Amino acid sequence: MTTAMVEARGVRKNFGVIEILKGIDLRVEKGSVTCLIGPSGSGKTTFLRCINHLEKVDAGRLYVNEHLVGYAERNGKLYEMKERQTARSRLNAGMVFQRFNLFPHMTVLENIIEAPVHVLGRSRHEVIVEAQALLDRVGLGNRGHSYPQELSGGQQQRIAIARALAMKPKLMLFDEPTSALDPELVGEVLDVMKSLAEAGMTMVVVTHELGFARQVADQVVFMDGGVVVESGPPEDVLDNPQQERTKAFLSKVL
Amino acid sequence: MNSSREVTAVHKQPSVPGTREPATASGDSIPVVPLKHPVRLVLAAVLILVTLSAAWDVAVNERYRWDVVASYLFAPQILAGAGLTLMLTVVSMTVGIALGTLLAIMRLSDNPILSTISRAYIWFFRGTPLLVQLIFWYNIAALYPVIAFGLPFGGPSVVLGSANVLISPLGAALLGLSLNEAAYMAEIIRGGIRSVDKGQYDAARALGMSGGKLMNRVILPQAMRVVLPPTGNQVISMLKGTSLVSVLAISDLLYSAQIIYADNYQTIPLLIVASLWYLLMTTVLSFFQNKLERRYGRGFDSAPRRIRQPKTRTA
User: Fold this and answer.
1) Which residues does chain B have within 8 Å of residue A167's beta carbon, measured at their own beta carbons?
2) CA-to-CA distance for A251 and B216, rounded, in angstroms?
3) Mutate which of B111, B195, B207 to disrupt the A interface (most A C-beta within 10 Å)?
4) CATH number of B66-147+159-296
5) In degrees rounded to 5, what are phi and psi of residue B305?
6) Which of A26, B17, B197, B208 has the greatest count of CB atoms below 10 A from its CB?
């Protein structure tokens, strides 16, 4: 079918009468980094949530790792998946949220091993070793026994990244991962994301950090009003935008 | 009073000069004179006096018949009654919480049939008096003399036995208390579930969880924190509410005391005996409630579990 990690064709999404996504076409190649930028309300976050089927797609086709998201296609009809099937298909992608969403009643280590042990059914002992390595990777090797609330926002977000990575996803989705952070904490999270990109992880990042997009992205996608206005390499979209709406947005942000 | 100086002495750290002097200006410790509360002292003295004299009055007032209280405190009949009260409480609360959790999840479900059933159940069992429900279960044999298991609309069935035998007074009491409690617990648990941040569902789903696993591992443990204090209330009011079952001639704690004083006319001393046992059981249950609250407050309490290393900043 396709070799892209994510492929969207005419993806639409409504909330009631309001049309949030008005036909998104997008390809994310394996091993590439895509940054979604655009004003708030443009549908970036909704699209990201569709990739993980946290939102149901209303029309169009969305493929992740060559599988249709949320539906099974048989005899020319789309059958909605059962919750359990959907849950299994979500294992392709790891997701990091704006507000971290760590489990507050578990320690950092328990947060990370929760899904590998209780969803994948792997041995606890084996997963703890991996979790410790992940904690070292995000620079928090000594915080395994802390509770999330005892950590700063930047630390919590790095734990959230480690938690998503523990499921060994093929794709990482980031929903404005630095928007809820104090300015001085943004750098530490972006550094972890950069090293992840360098290691070859496929990433889709909704962000307002244009500096990060310029440095790390292979593809920048500018969305506005539920459509992709412009997309391409960062030097094209960010430095030499062709569309008026892109120019207007960038002039306000920069 | 140079407490601040003592703090400095205890707080010996490898300090960078000029940083983190605790609570004193410019390094010199200035003696702090705390505000005095003379009125408070006088009031406290008066209150202690009043309390002591009242306690002394109660202790020496012979009409309380403390000797009778002492002789019946560990009477076998009273102990059996206390045991039965405790059993009724534990069983009804356990069934009530289990069924209440199920009803709460049903009520929050997307399935309109499940949520309507749950809503109707809660409406009915909260809306009718517990006393009526208890008497209803006690008299169920009048409506259904024989209990059978079988197909609806008069299809073939297997007779299980006479209702009077199957549903004893104790059975009727447990049934009434449990089913009634479930309705209240359902609302408490629903409130707890709804207090959990929506982001927790997103995070759990993104990690591949669904259904029961998502509920049991992520949502319910967090809901517990909100559910526990009102549940403690329910347990305690259930403990005392079980005295209602005396209408079904079940010898719980209060009924046992009543039987004894109906015989010897020592009404007040025996009510004191019963009250002492209720107080003791309430105290023990509150202790467990505290323990549970601490257990489920982990990760939420603002107080750190251990003293954190102070951050040393270089000026």
Assistant:
1) 207-208
2) 49
3) B207
4) 1.10.3720.10
5) -75, -25
6) B208
